[in-house]
Model the fold of this input.
Amino acid sequence: MQNRFFRQLGLVDQERLQSLNVLVSGSHEGISDLLVLFQQLGIGEQDGQIGILCEDEKTSTSVFWDLAFPKCTAFSDLVTVYGNRYIVVDSVHTEDWDIHLSLNSSSELGANLYGRSWGPRALVSSEPIAMEQFEHHTHPLSPSLRIACASALVEAMLTSIGAKNGIMVSDAWFTVTCRIETTDTTKAAEYVTGMNGFPMSYQPTSDGLAILARMRIPHPMPGNPYEFLNIKKELKQDQVNLHHNVGLVDWDSNPTELDGMSSILPVDAVMLGVGGLGSWAAPLLAQQMPSGTLHVVDGDLSIERHNLNRQVLYHEAHIGQAKAVVAEQRLQELNANINIVAHGEHLLPGHLNLEEDDESDEQIFDLDEDGPDSYLTDALTSSSLYFGCLDNMRARTLLNEAALKFEATMINGGSESIHAIVERLNASEGCMVCRYGRDSAYESEVISCTEEGARPIASIATTTAWAGAMMAAFGLIEASELTEQSAPRLQWHKGAVQRIQVNSKPPWLNEPCLRHI
Done:
């Protein structure tokens, strides 16, 4: 069983989402980004419907529109391609819809929930949001913050309609269980094993007279195990007086330097991982870069169907292909003025070992001298900006070591089901050991959306889209004239965002960061 939404079934009521009737309104770009998230989540996909209330049919400038809807140039094309799932309306009739979302609306439309973003600011509210205090000009952070705002708006919707599970189920699977008529565990394991080498567990039966052996059925499974589970849902919560700041600065705060940010300078960057986070961060970065090179690095050789609920760079036709190769092709189509280079490999300690007399590395393993040539070391040395879109702390720390060694800035991101974090790391603000301590920084456990050799987790597009978008925003600030701008540590939980200001290393860590790592 390869269910596209398998990784979010433990988080939300998928049947409810697929039968939802939701109306969207607002700016053309705001509607576009909401529709992209709806597609990722499967909203309205079965017997539901998505209504679109817009002022005109202009071409969308959302970088994700062409990625998600390559056959559609206008909202009306959705009706032609997808049938009754979409409808374009010219007026609001609230009783026809389960909920109405409005993103960057220019007027009060009687929506249930509103979102608005501009530059570094983003707000989700139960009331219409005025924008008179801001100048109406383009801002390089607006596309990133619009995705962040759309993600929080959709999270608020899920809470409002009671579509969230009351408790998170990280995974579900089928097992084959057999009773072996012996009390000798060694003998049971000798005679009964899993097909094709799949591991089995052996334990005594409750009566103590036999051994129970179990094997987890690997993907693709013969069915959907969630169909046999009844997960109690969260109670619906009326979003009255909702006022969530989800941007880099408070919506109502005085003007800041970030509000005046005007241009992006040429930059060479390395993005390590183009899955859940990189799939959202890379297009936003590629769209804004005036020139330079973006190196996309991913050792995953096969895109799987269950990736498609949150990795917007890929669709059904890409299943089975290598992520880095597909990412390179799709990103290059977004901006012909930059150079996209794919590296289908993992970052290894050997990529950092450039000088024979350099003893800062504790080598765990080196590059295979007999293997294919790797140009990742050249990418690291030539780039000033790294993005860590990774699934384990040890890999993040290795990338952080590269950033310190090659004098680059690292944008670190992580997501796990309903939680996410985005932060900046550089020589003056501390390293992974400064932030997390040595034990945590070198933790080798991999949290992953696969079941093989790793702890599986639930995943949903609202979390990954927010984190990827904010990573792009951090990177764009680094590639602007505001390089020295302080950057908060952002934490996401179910659509709420906490900003923690990080100005320096802890006072008890006064040594250079390379000594720590």
Q: What stands out?
A: Residues 142-160 form the longest helix (19 residues). Residues 175-216 form one domain. DSSP finds 14 helices and 20 strands in the chain. Confidence is low (pLDDT under 50) at residues 354-371.
